[in-house]
Amino acid sequence: MRKRISLLASAGLVAVGLAAAPANAADPVLTLTSPDRIGLRPHPGQGGEAQKTSVDFRVNNGTGTVFDRESTFTIDLSGLKGVADVALAKDQADSCTLTATSVTCKRYAVWTHDSGIVALDLSAAKDSKTGTTVDLTMTGRAEGATFKAATTKVKVGGPDLVLEEARLKREMNPGGTQPLPVVFGNAGTESVQGVALELNTTHGIGLVEKYDNCVYSEDNAPGQSWNMGWGKTVCTLDGEFEPGALYEVGRLTLRAAPHGFIDGMTYAVREAGAQSKTPQKLTKPSTGKKLEFKQRPAKTALGSGDLDPWNNYHEFDFTVKNSADLVAAAASVKGRAGETVKAELGFRNNGPAWVAYIRSGEDVARTDIVIPVGAKVTKAPEQCRGVTADGKYREENLGAPRYVCSTTHIIGEKQKFAYPFELKIEKVVAGATGSVSVGGWWSESGAPTPQDWDPDHANNKAAFVINAKDGGTGPAPSASTGTAAPAPGATATASAAPSAGNAAEPNGDLASTGSTAGPVAAGGAALVAAGGLLFLVFRRRAAGRA
Question: How far apart are the first and last CA of the chain?
């Protein structure tokens, strides 16, 4: 049996260890993370076999951009000799190498937010002594980056908190609620002096109640609680939790938000003081109410069959009956022959739902832009790739007749995506018309496919016009337009996307050409090869990304 001690990728909420030596002051600082401490059941364990405990090491990239150089990560195992036996978790062998003294892993890119490096299975060594504690430290190195190391304290013996899996309804309605029963016990060799209950919920689901012995995450960016993807709640329960006893937590209720859609939750119990750390700001309410707990009768204690005795962590995915309407934005620019003009091309989400592929990190949507005749693209955003007129691969990015642009893995319920282009008008063609289309990723023609969750496919396409005959935008399903004045050599600007860490506009139309706003985030121009979509499989770990 295996006890897992980890949090989801996207939560990115784990303890931070010692800092690595600083590199160049301008280099990005990436943080390695792992549980603060773990306990191993003394050898030989139940049934005469050593019991495995899985520990995750991860990396948190909070810079807002992908670090695209090769990185090497090393875990020193020398301190575990005679204390614990180590093996790579089942799905880790392809990317990491294990020797008697170390684990080495390589990554060719470090994605934004949180992603997995390696999971190790640890078990107490045959001659290990109860109470022995050693450090397990991961370090990282790469040209052009500084890594803060992560250290986990490994102890033989000690308390072992376990969590019963709640029976929850997977389908909910916007605004709907359901109770969240939390039952846990201590299957270890020592009492626990205080317990921390951790809940991590995606943007579309949360807790109804507020308690004074809980702290709750707050998003510092107004109107962008979807920016991080996850919200965090930590409730501290004071008291002594004895080995073999079972406990039940008081009232907790889950509610699906009006913008809920593809959402998930993780929940865990940890020894107080060992809960994972988070970069999010946590606030404590003042309600006069306290989350209580009570001990269950001995006849329902551990081993009753209701409890998974080797797990203090569970996760759950929800499907909220909702939809998200993606609307392509029409655009119109004017200019004389030889002039360079700017245009912001993209779409907005009219909601009501947000859409997020948090676990896989896969882009939610694709924007297909057809350039009007007579114009040549001289500058394109990095998340847009030039293709041939029929959507095939093209070596040269600039000057293409057509462009395919990626989003990030999150689209907020009222978010806009605007991709800034600069175009040289080589020949004035009155009413030259291209198009902007938004949808899914693949079709035989290369055009975006309609999303099943998008209720109105008629507004997925709009016109992009240069030198409109009537001074307008020409025919377009979308009412949003932008107008660009000729400005050779000017730098294009656009609305920010969430993974950039900048504030996207939560309301209104796409930013007008020439307006001042944050840069569009890189997000991820290519599809992630590993990891299923959140709405298909809420997987425990996507390879290399969460």
Answer: 25
